[in-house]
Design goal:
Largest sheet: 3 strands, parallel
Radius of gyration: 22 Å
Distance between the termini: 24 Å
Structural class: alpha/beta
Number of strands: 8
Number of helices: 12
Order of helices and strands: HEEEHEEEHEHEHHHHHHHH
Helix content: 40-55%
């Protein structure tokens, strides 16, 4: 899901059963993993982030940053906010993005917010307080976005989120799209639910190649991928299982469609400037890996 307000987080966790509404009902343990690379601080229950003055709607890039480093940045940001609030007698200038459907444009609106010191919290503090309120959750921070390929350490960290006592896994990102699909696919493969995966059977690669090359690419049957499956033990079956997982996680972003999209964009505009072409090539390779 996208980064929620505190009220939204409570609603989602209650929906997943982390805090049953009726006494006596069993609680469901939720492993909540925050994938954002940006430093986030909650003010009056709403999440805020830092942005550059001349690029207020563009996310700050922190490629390769680790969870502990992000949490340290958030703690420092909280200290800065509290210091400014004290100096301005309990007020702070914040900004929000507003979208106008008629003009199809977004604008950034500044406003003054009255703030109490106790209402400024980092995500770690927010979820720690929810746990104190009785929500059965375990919070983890593993920065991961679609702008960079998952490293081996990222894959390991997400796999280690597996908990036999957990009843649900919840991933949080900026928009609830993109990086969440990577994380969902990784944890689903780690769970290795063979019985569940058997209910969906992808089309065979042979049939796809007979129908059209585009359909084969849509199923991820690229030359290098097929070559890899031939040398791996149970390679074709493993690819089928991965394909099923990708389909089931497609609500948060379709990994194979991303590859196909960047491939088509490169073919559609062969004469685009070098910088944009390099960007498309980079994003396509990251999605493929």
């Amino acid at each position: 899901m996208a980064t929620p307000t505190i009220a939204g987080a409570k609603e989602m966790l209650s929906y997943l059963g982390a805090k049953p509404a009726a006494k006596g009902n069993a609680r469901t343990k939720v492993i909540l993993t925050d994938l954002r690379e940006e430093a986030v601080v909650y003010i009056n229950g709403t999440p805020y982030v830092l942005r550059e003055l001349n690029k207020p709607v563009d996310t700050l890039k922190h490629m390769g940053i680790t969870g502990p480093v992000v949490e340290h940045m958030e703690a420092r940001l909280k200290e800065d906010i509290i210091s400014e609030v004290k100096q301005s007698r309990g007020r702070m200038l914040l900004h929000r993005e507003e979208y106008s459907p008629p003009s199809d444009q977004a604008s950034v609106i500044g406003y003054w917010e009255n703030i109490f010191i106790n209402d400024v919290k980092t995500p770690f503090e927010v979820y720690a307080s929810l746990k104190d309120e009785g929500y059965d959750i375990e919070y983890r921070r593993i920065p991961l976005t679609r702008e960079r390929e998952p490293l081996a350490s990222d894959v390991d960290a997400i796999q280690y989120c597996k908990d036999d006592s957990a009843g649900a896994y919840l991933f949080v990102s900026h928009t609830g799209f993109g990086g969440v699909a990577y994380a969902m696919a990784i944890i689903c493969i780690r769970l290795d639910a063979d019985a569940k995966l058997a209910t969906v059977t992808p089309q065979s690669s042979v049939l796809l190649y007979q129908s059209s090359e585009e359909e084969a690419h849509k199923m991820g049957d690229y030359r290098d991928i097929l070559s890899l499956t031939r040398v791996l033990i149970c390679g074709p079956k493993s690819k089928e299982d991965v394909d099923v997982v990708i389909e089931r996680c497609s609500g948060a972003g379709h990994l194979r469609d991303d590859i196909l999209y960047y491939t088509k964009e490169l073919e559609k505009f062969p004469c685009i400037d070098d910088e944009h072409r390099a960007y498309l090539m980079d994003m396509g390779i990251k999605a493929l890996r």
